[in-house]
Design brief:
By secondary structure, this protein is mainly alpha-helical. The protein has a single domain, classed as Four Helix Bundle (Hemerythrin (Met), subunit A) (Up-down Bundle). Helices cover about 75% and strands about 0% of the residues. It is elongated and about 55 Å long. It starts with a helix and ends with a helix.
Length: about 140
């Protein structure tokens, strides 16, 4: 891919990243913490389902952006996600590789049914630590763009 096309690709990914992040923010606006003692109706679960789906897409878009950023700036792509995240941590786009590996793990686990307490832990992570990291990352991408 020539340099102009790659710059266009990075720009498209950045736009997708912005939209994806905006949807996460919209899902979190006013959403109460998941309560494992409540037996939610399907309608009551919709905001949590939307958040989970948006979180999955958001993490994937951020990771695609990281790969493109790495290739554009260093002319290579790491062979593993961990190696790529290590590069992103070194350049300051993310704060901690471990939290991104946890985010990826939660992203993979969302598709399975879990006990209410495990579901609460997943949503608590998404609504707190993971959202904080996404904000940190998005802010640093804005600075570098």
């Amino acid at each position: 891919m020539d340099s102009k096309k790659y710059d266009d690709y990075i720009k498209i990914l950045k736009e997708k990243l912005d939209r994806s992040f905006m949807l996460i923010e919209a899902s979190l606006d006013g959403l109460q913490a998941y309560d494992p003692s409540i037996i939610y109706t399907p309608k009551e679960l919709e905001p949590y389902d939307a958040l989970a789906d948006r979180f999955i897409r958001c993490v994937e878009i951020f990771i695609k952006y990281f790969k493109a950023y790495e290739y554009k700036n260093f002319a290579y792509k790491s062979l593993t996600l961990r190696d790529g995240l290590n590069v992103m941590e070194k350049v300051g786009l993310i704060s901690d590789v471990t939290i991104w590996l946890k985010m990826r793990d939660i992203r993979n686990r969302i598709v399975h049914d879990y006990l209410p307490e495990q579901t609460k832990e997943m949503f608590d992570s998404i609504m707190n630590d993971f959202f904080t990291e996404l904000k940190f990352c998005k802010k640093n991408i804005e600075k570098s763009f």
